Structures are given as C-alpha cells and as structure tokens.
Amino acid sequence: MEKKQVIIDTDCGIDDAQAIMMALAAPNIQIVGITCVFGNAEVETKLLSPSCREQISLNTALKVNFCLQTPVFKGSGGPLVGASTPISDHLSTDGLGDVNKDKDPQWEEKIQREHAVNAMIRLVTENQKQVSLVVLCPLSNLALAVRLDPSLPQKLIMGGNMEGKGNVTLCTEFNFAMDPELAYIVLEEFLCPTYVASWEYACRNPLTWEFFEELINQDAPAAAYIKMITAYSL
C-alpha cells in the first residue's frame, strides 16, 4: 500500500500529541516531518517569551515522537505582527498535563538545524504532488512558507470558526487568534485545495467515549502515554 505523505505543523499540546501518535500508528500515513511553532504551552504561571513556549513545543514533539524516526524542525517563535498573545495553562504548564517531569537534557541536539519553514518547502519540492500539510496550530509557519514559495500542496487546517463561536473568547478560536494576520495570508494566498476543520466542525464531530476508552486501554506504550496526558484535561 502506498503511504500518504504528510507534514504535521504543531504547537503540540495534548490534542496535537494524540493526533501525532495516531498518525504515527496509521499504516497508510508517512510523516515526513514535524514542524513546531509557538502556541499551546507555557511554563509556570508567568508570561513567557514566544521562544520559551516554542522550546516547550519542540521538547513535547520529541517526547511524543517516541522512536525519533521523524525529523522535528523549529519554526516561528511568535506572531509576525504585534505582541504575542498571553495564553493560559489550560493544557497544563508544559502542554502535556505536566506528566513529563524532567526535560530531556539533550533535546536541542535532536532538533534539525534546518528552519521549519525551509523544511516545509524542501520536503514539498522533493516530493511534488505527494505531500499534504496538516496544520494543528497557529498558521505562522505556513504563512511564511507561502511568502517564500506560493506553490505548496493540499492541506488541512484545524482552526477558525464559521459562526462566530470561539474557544478563547466569545468569538475567537485559538489557532487563528494567536496570529490572525498570518491566518489571513494563508487563506487569501494559498491557491491549492484547502480544508479547514473549524471549531464548530470539531464540536459536531467528536470521537465517542467508547472509541477513546478502547484507545487508551490498549496494551501499548503509546496508549498508556495518551491515557496519562489526557488525565489532566478530562
């Protein structure tokens, strides 16, 4: 079976960690790269610089990517326009339920030296008409990539809202709210097929509790890890 090649762009909180592990386990999916951006994680209860939050996202992506067979790339450390939007610890201080007590002291050595935006463009160019982008985070990396190379592939974006119903304020959705100007660039300038899984779409298409219980109770390290990190938010 020919595998579908994807790049996952993430700010790696609990929900993104589940998505990455499910993609790693899918027999018909090949993750050719994980690109990271600022967004979901914060340390302690103080406001951090975007670069600190991005470092946590990177470290989280490495922990989720157990076998380290998939390269992880560092991307945008903050929104392009304006100050970084303060975020809460709704997914815990590290984005993963604070279950990882000790950060890997060698985590920086495991990050690819190539910038995430350049990696996106290179991987797409090397595998033309084969790679899809799955964007689970603020659209900063994607917008910078389209400024450098407008010819990028089919993609799925998790974010935005269609009916003005928000999840961080009354009418704003997290991923678009974190960098709205670059979200605008992506939606206006990407000419390839684009699929947006909005906040309303996610709310109307939840996984069943039966599926979730079956998933986390499997006799596998990844299932045990999902069970551990999701305990924070359930």
Range of strand content: 5-15%
* Number of beta strands: 6
Radius of gyration: 17 Å
Q: Could you give the order of the helices and strands? A: EHEHEHEHEHHEHHH
Write the layout of secondary structure elements.
Layout: E1 4-10, H1 14-25, E2 29-36, H2 50-64, E3 72-74, H3 116-126, E4 131-135, H4 140-148, E5 155-158, H5 174-178, H6 180-189, E6 194-197, H7 199-204, H8 209-216, H9 221-230
Parallel strand pairs: 1-2, 1-4, 2-3, 4-5, 5-6
Report what the structure shows:
The chain has nine helices and six strands. The protein is of the alpha/beta class and 234 residues long. The radius of gyration is 17 Å and the shape is globular. Mean pLDDT is 77; it is low at 41-56.
Short note summarizing the structure:
The chain has 9 helices and 6 strands, in the order βαβαβαβαβααβααα. The chain has 234 residues and is α/β, with parallel strands linked by helices.
List keywords for this structure.
6-stranded parallel beta sheet, globular, 234 residues, alpha/beta, 9 helices
